[in-house]
Amino acid sequence: MRPLPSATSTRYLALWFPFLPADRIERLRRKRGGARSSRCAVPAEDGSALSPAGPLASSPLVFVEKVQNALRLAALDRAARRAGLAPGLTLADARARVPDLAVLDHDPAADAAFLEEVADDCDRWTPLVALDMPDGVPDGLMLDITGCAHLFGGEAALRARLLAHLQRHGLGALAVIAGTPDAARALARSGKGGVVPPGGEASAVAGLPVARLGVGAEIVTGLSRAGLKTIGDLAARPGTPLAARFGMELLTRLARTLGREDVRLVPRRPLPECIAERRFAEPIARTSDIEATLALLVDDLALMLEARGEGGRAFEAGFFRTDGAVRRLRIETARPLRDGAALARLWRERIEALADPLDPGFGFDLVRLGVLRAEPLTPAQVSLDGRAVEEEEVAALIDRLSVRLGRERVLRFLQRDTHDPDRASVLVPAGGAPAPSATPPDVLARPLTLFDPPQPVEALAEVPDGPPLRFRWRRVVHEVARAEGPERLAPEWWRQPAAAPTRDYYRVENREGRRFWLFRAGLYGREAAGPAGQPRWFLHGLFP
């Protein structure tokens, strides 16, 4: 929370979809070639109401859910609203008023998934998009359009273009632009529309009911009993008595709705370090056009990164289709990169390696490329032995393999600072961020081949705690000619308290010259590892 600046203010666009479930069903039927006529909403010029576009179906549609063993209306379409129905009404009462009612089960999960798709499409207007569900119902979005409106001809033009775009895809919405999210939300959900000028939030929301503050029903009832029915009535009263009676949350919501305080959005997706995009009057669909567009965007990003002295480690390309669908591709590099030719080659590899090729549909009208993570990049100085060149070639190979095969399939070993041989190394993606290298512990030689898990063997020792004289492994008896040890390794008590026994490791050599790494799990008289209460022997590795 911060005071709203007087000169430069943030601007928010609130979208409310009052008929989202019905629009979702209508959109599905359109895709499947359904015969039901379109019932899209066309916002009025002032955005204050929704009017139908096209002929109406004969049966109004409602969505029901069970509440206290009774079926009640959870959502409805425009025809049902015009027939006088409202959410919360029982299905029996609704059918008494409208006999030819069409009924579907309410599916909030499907509505939420559909709203996510709409939010993805709204990324074309601003990268700062958040879900707006004050009551937990998926029916709204909030866009931070600060610094974006001039790209579309101003705030009014941006709002008009956004509503027209949604209407073309069968979505009816109310949109309000204001200086705080709470003010824009309250106006949109009250059926208002338009653009509130900076500083005009207080007068715009003065006539709204206090319920639009988003406070609890108990507080709304108490305010109504005190004669405070509108936000303007509440704003005219001193804050101290209100805080003492109803709590500070009421004053906080009031200040935000009046435009006196701002609270920033938490966007659905992280804001990229830098973005480059191309918009097309005529959508593109050919792979060659897509690759050429990506090459141009890569060059733009390379200039931005060079000016910042950085290189990108993670890149994401977004392809916005004309029907509202969005496809995203992502690549990561093993080192900071801003070479345009290398990045263009990686993107070409990424597109060619897709198991599910890019489906342009009727074409992409917007292609965006962003840098999700960047790191400082200084010019590399080539050493006399050429090692720097080799490192660059290895990193380039890792990038190509990761893009083609998948980041999780190109791995490298990372050493851990531990004495436990089972945890001494771990496989991590080769193109991931380099972890701090652990100083290798000062231990005796380890074999190159390890068994996971260690393989049990039958061993005979001259004394209980001594090295083995012979052991049987895979039905072959090995006579021990030389043995070195023991090297005692206790378990990591902070990870496995009293769960794993102590191990005594021996490096042994049989009479044929083969060398093994054996250990005895457990100590005689103190730790029992076997089912009979005796220590057991295992083969953990083979020396070359």
TrEMBL record:
<dbReference type="InterPro" id="IPR050356">
    <property type="entry name" value="SulA_CellDiv_inhibitor"/>
</dbReference>
<dbReference type="InterPro" id="IPR043502">
    <property type="entry name" value="DNA/RNA_pol_sf"/>
</dbReference>
<keyword id="KW-0227">DNA damage</keyword>
<protein>
    <submittedName>
        <fullName>Protein ImuB</fullName>
    </submittedName>
</protein>
